[in-house]
Each structure stands twice: as C-alpha cells, then as structure tokens.
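[Protein data]
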Amino acid sequence: MPSIERGAAHQTVITTFEVMPGLCQDLLELLSAAYREVISKQPGFLGAALHVNDAQTRIANYSQWRQREDFLAMLRSDEMRRRNRDISALCKSFEPVMYDVSETFD
C-alpha cells in the first residue's frame, strides 16, 4: 500500500497515460496484468494505484519503490520492455516522472 509521507526515504513515481476514447479499458487491463504478474514481484516494489479520469482518456499511476534504482531495474527488464511496447501502442503518450513528497495535508 502506498504511503505518502514528507521526508520518506522511498521513491515515488507518477506516470500519466493519455489514451484515445474507447482504449482506456484495454490499457487498464494491460497495466493491471503488468502489476499483478511482473511489477509487484520486483525487488523494492512497495505499492501502486491506478486512477482513471471520468472521460476515460487518461490513466494516472502512482507507485512507490524502496529506491530509484529498483524502479529503473524494473523498467530495464526484458519483460517490461516488451510490455511497455504493447502499452505504448495504446497511448497517445505516457510519461513516468520521479517525485519526492514535499508536503502532506490531512
């Protein structure tokens, strides 16, 4: 389960995917399968969530990793390179960005 805390030592990655209307569910299925079958089993994986906008034209993915190198190693694996080609084929664009938590509010 992702934990959002200021000053946390882990790496947060937020990825946004832009899709054509009608392809959102297909992309969501590919992403869910990747998390179930590969990503969640990688060293350093802490947790993730997938979010879909009302228009079903964007998916936001929030994931956390023990450290940046764990996330990068997962991306560089042969299996994820193959899956990312399939994911990319359904997207107008997608961009993973690494973040540090600056502030939280309750």
Summary: Residues 11-99 form a domain with the Alpha-Beta Plaits fold (CATH 3.30.70.100). Strands lie at 11-19, 45-52, 58-65, 91-99.
